[in-house]
Design brief:
The structure holds two protein chains of two kinds. By secondary structure, chain A is α+β, with helices and mostly antiparallel strands. Chain A contains 19 helices and 20 strands. In chain B, a hairpin with a 2-residue loop joins strand 6 and strand 7. The chains are: A alpha+beta, B alpha+beta. At the A-B interface, helix 1, strand 4, helix 4, helix 5 and helix 9 of A face strand 1, strand 3, helix 5 and helix 6 of B.
């Protein structure tokens, strides 16, 4: 169908008159014919309470009522509300006070980043309107079309149950009030930002708008590794509505950024190193024109042979992706404690295994977005959900060659980050574009763009060797970890350090050897992601301990208790610990989990397999919800 | 991004067909619920798509409404999936589709998406198809010849030709789906995917059973599977095996084993086989239970 896209390359579209009742008020507007309801509400009416998280009907944060029926507004052409009534999240607190449901979300702590919350509140409102007495399973089903990435679903479910009970008179209104307590610790306190989040009042970067604002789109590399011969933006610049194009040539200062190693240009400089790397950016009067113009930028490439496997990348024959990184090694962290080889020789049992983890996308519900403008005194201001604001400011000052006091970074409400918004991958382009055009510039990623271009969790390959005594004391641990770091360093050095420091686990081990290596490849860059490398190495450690327990014929909990650090222990990197609560943690955990002691994987000892699934009194919980066709709600 | 020069909301079927026919098909698309076409026109799938015209047929009276005629249900193609849960007539006479609807996408999408849209999209994993197969449904296509409405009808097996391929011609509109009333049948719909809601089926299955109460035997048994091959299929081998027999756990276990060879998907065959066999048994037990016969599943030995 690509030929169809060539029928309109101007980005200028026909318009249509739409009249609807929006939140009780009659609205008539002329908008582009291809607008969806979400565009009409957010871009035209500037009602930004409902968000766009995916644009494909998956996340639900754009849910609105059409003639009283909840629908996903990113899947609705605007014509579908012509002559009908529409309710956005802004309709729920029109009396100036939050609805009972919104108050329940406030009470139950049901919003963290808040980006999914308008949709959650709408879906829960819809559910309680059609079924005032939903069971917990029905609540889960009713919220099934909505995704949350950071609050955690439990608190949201708690809030809906609380609202249900208050509405039905089973709980008093006072249940919505904050618990009175002397201390914040150990008590539920209401978050200060929740009212703004449950009503949609709080502004994320994509909700912001300035008069005379331009929209930015980015031309990205389709190749993982290629030399840029020439960038031809003439066709884009010739388009009506286009205001500016920038490339690496527009960078006035030192064109490098990075969390630990400043190895990445704002836009590709001479060479592209991964699919999705920014090559040029264009700004225009509308998002549609900018989008079409970005496609018209022609880049001539000389395709190079890339390298996609970190082990291959370390060979002498591999392409060298960065001049300063011999054998493409971005970071090599080592821990050497005691004599591992000697200890392994003395060990009663040596267990070797290789563990691999995958690259993971953060999928925060808010795609990257930013708004930049130049103030009257020449100060360049960039508003974005940056997780590393001060560092970004310093890097940006160098890039745009301005003194630090002429660079301002404002952190907008972050709609989920998990480490994925620590990298300054688009703020530089916004700053350059606003400097070039002298107009405010906004840039909003699509969900796909966010997936393709932003850093992922490092995939690790971990070769593990552990030596133990027959009674289960760990004598030596050796972890050889190689991580695919992708095209640029981003947070790789820090991730390698933390993977190394925490990798051997909270166990007293006299002999430890760790190699933690991040390698440049032509894959999407890898960066910070919750737990920052420790997730991967500790996954290997804990898996390995289970394996060792089965080889030793030991209960895996006992194996851990035998080796856990205790008060006064020293970490593998020499930090003196005062108090260590690890043992108590494990004891509490196994109590809460109802752990039945035993040796895992008993087949290896010629014992019959554990028949967990056949045990009649087991604690198995169905992993799917029942279909509640015969519920009161359905019958209604 | 999906863009278009015009978006038409015709007031009658002939008006819609006139636009469709005069446009010669290539850059015109019909839209009903819109829940498939908008996500399709995005990066990674079709990319940017620009059409000349979108024709919204979701409000055409010819495509709306549900009636019962001579034991057959006439369901307008633009009937939203949600109606199969909330419309009492559909709940009574199309119980398999009602059970299917509960598992279909999520609340919001069920309110938008239509039964006809799910059918013309012809996804190998389309959830409504196994259920429709049990209802022995026939698709009614409409076009204009000399400004006169002309209809043709065909069974679902002839309508769905393969993944995303149907017998619907560029000058035709799917207007109606005619199907057996399965009033009095016990029904079940089973589905598994990565999560409960808004998920494409890895395996799905529909079962309907009718009991002859004088003989206590199975009078009619209908079974269809989806997402495990290029098109959803009725499993007549199992249907024939069960009809006329008195149901018991052993019989259902034997019947379930017969389904394994029908898995012809391109991926995860072994997993699908195991799930499908269990689904047939569980679905049959559930459908029988809704029909009023309680069967205990034969215990399984885990290997």
């Amino acid at each position: 169908m690509t030929d169809l896209s060539e029928l309109n390359q101007t980005g200028i579209h026909h318009t249509v008159d739409i009249s609807a009742i929006v939140n009780g008020r009659k609205v008539s507007r002329r908008v582009p014919v291809h607008y969806r309801v979400i565009d009409f509400v957010r871009e035209e009416l500037k009602l930004t309470g409902n968000k766009e998280g995916c644009g494909a009907g998956e996340c639900g944060t754009c849910s609105m009522f059409v003639d009283g029926e909840l629908m996903k507004s990113c899947l609705l052409p605007v014509q579908k509300i012509n002559g009908r009534s529409l309710e956005t999240v802004e309709s729920l607190d029109q009396q100036g006070t939050m609805s009972i449901l919104q108050q329940a979300f406030h009470k139950a702590g049901s919003s963290q980043c808040g980006y999914c919350i308008p949709g959650m509140v709408m879906a829960a409102t819809s559910l309680l309107r059609s079924n005032p007495e939903p069971t917990i399973d029905q609540i889960k089903e009713g919220l099934g079309g909505n995704i949350c990435r950071c609050t955690g679903y439990q608190k949201i479910l708690d809030a809906v149950e609380l609202a249900r009970d208050v509405i039905n008179g089973k709980s008093d209104l006072s249940a919505l009030e904050e618990e009175k307590a002397e201390s914040f610790i150990g008590h539920k306190t209401r978050r200060l930002d929740t009212p703004g989040k449950v009503t949609g009042a709080i502004k994320y970067a994509a909700d912001m708008w300035m008069p005379n604002m331009l929209h930015m789109a980015v031309h990205r590399s389709p190749h993982p590794y290629a030399r840029i011969i020439k960038i031809d933006a003439s066709a884009a610049l010739a388009m009506e509505g286009v205001e500016g194009v920038i490339t690496a040539d527009d960078v006035p200062g030192i064109d490098n950024f990075g969390v630990f190693i400043e190895d990445q240009p704002v836009m590709a400089r001479g060479v592209v190193r991964y699919v999705g790397e920014a090559v040029a950016a264009v700004s225009a009067e509308t998002e549609e024109i900018a989008h079409e113009a970005a496609k018209k930028i022609v880049v001539h490439y000389e395709i190079l042979d890339g390298v996609f496997d970190p082990f291959e990348a370390m060979r002498d024959s591999a392409p060298q992706l960065h001049d300063f990184a011999k054998n493409n090694i971005c970071k090599h962290t080592k821990i050497r404690k005691g004599d591992v080889e000697a200890a392994l020789l003395k060990a009663d049992l040596v267990v070797k295994e290789t563990y691999k983890t995958a690259a993971v996308e953060h999928a925060y519900l808010e795609p990257e977005a930013g708004l930049a403008h130049v103030e009257a005194d020449g100060t360049v201001t960039v508003i974005s959900p940056s997780q590393n604001l001060t560092h970004h400011r310093h890097m940006l000052a160098k890039i745009i060659a301005k003194p630090i006091h002429k660079v301002r970074m404002i952190m907008s409400t972050v709609g989920g980050g998990f480490g994925g918004k620590e990298d300054m991958i688009y703020q530089g382009m916004l700053a350059l574009m606003t400097m070039k055009t002298r107009r405010p510039v906004r840039y909003v990623f699509t969900r796909e763009e966010s997936f393709v271009t932003t850093a992922k969790r490092h995939p690790f390959t971990i070769d593990y060797t552990m030596g133990l005594s027959a009674d289960g004391k760990i004598l030596a641990s050796k972890l050889e970890m190689v991580a695919d770091g992708g095209a640029y360093a981003m947070s790789s050095p820090g991730v390698m350090n933390k993977a190394a420091i925490l990798g051997p686990g909270p166990y007293s081990i006299p002999n430890v050897w760790v190699d933690s290596i991040a390698v440049y490849t032509n894959n999407t860059p890898r960066g910070a992601f919750r737990s920052f490398g420790a997730f991967q190495s500790e996954f290997a450690t804990e898996s390995h301990l289970d394996l060792c327990a089965s080889r030793l014929g030991m209960d895996p909990v006992q194996l851990r208790l035998k080796n856990l650090m205790t008060d006064g222990a020293q970490t593998h990197t020499g930090q003196q610990l005062d108090q260590v609560l690890a043992t108590r943690c494990v004891e509490e955990l196994i109590r809460a989990a109802g752990w039945s002691p035993g040796v895992p994987n008993r087949q290896s000892h010629n014992k019959p397999a554990r028949n967990d699934l056949g045990q009649p009194s087991g604690v198995r919980v169905s992993c799917t919800l029942g279909a509640n066709l015969d519920s009161p709600r359905d019958a209604a | 991004m999906l863009t278009y020069n015009s978006y038409l909301t015709p007031r009658s079927l002939p008006e819609a067909l006139n636009v469709l026919i005069s446009a010669k098909g290539s850059v015109v698309r019909l839209i009903a619920g819109g829940t498939d076409i908008l996500p399709w026109a995005r990066q990674g799938r079709a990319g940017d798509v620009h059409l000349d015209t979108l024709i919204d047929i979701s409000s055409l009276s010819e495509l709306r409404g549900v009636t019962l005629r001579d034991g057959r249900l006439q369901v307008g193609a633009a009937t939203p999936i949600a109606d199969f849960i909330r419309n009492p007539l559909l709940r009574e006479h199309a119980p398999v589709l009602s059970r299917c609807a509960v598992w279909f996408a999520d609340d919001q999408i069920r309110a938008q998406a239509t039964i006809g849209g799910n059918l013309v999209n012809a996804s190998p994993a389309g959830d409504s198809q196994p259920a429709l197969l049990l209802h022995d449904c026939r698709a009614t296509l409409s076009t204009l010849q000399n400004q006169k409405l002309v209809e043709r009808q065909m069974p679902l097996s002839e309508f769905i030709l393969g993944p995303s391929k149907t017998a619907c011609q560029p000058n035709e509109v799917l207007v109606k789906i005619e199907m057996d009333s399965l009033k009095g049948y016990g029904c079940a719909f089973e589905k598994v995917g990565h999560r409960r809601s808004l998920v494409i089926s890895t395996v799905c299955l529909a079962v309907a059973v009718k009991i002859n109460w004088s003989s206590k035997k199975i009078e009619d048994f209908r079974l269809a599977i989806g997402a495990v091959g290029p098109v959803p299929t009725r499993i007549t081998e199992i249907e024939k095996f069960l009809v006329g027999k008195a149901p018991n756990g052993k019989l259902l276990r034997d019947a379930a084993q017969m389904v394994a060879d029908y898995v012809r998907s391109r991926s995860r065959q072994e997993y699908r086989r195991e799930v499908l066999v269990n689904f047939v048994e569980r679905g049959a037990v559930e459908a029988l239970s809704r029909a009023g016969v309680s069967i205990e599943r034969v215990a399984k030995e885990l290997s």
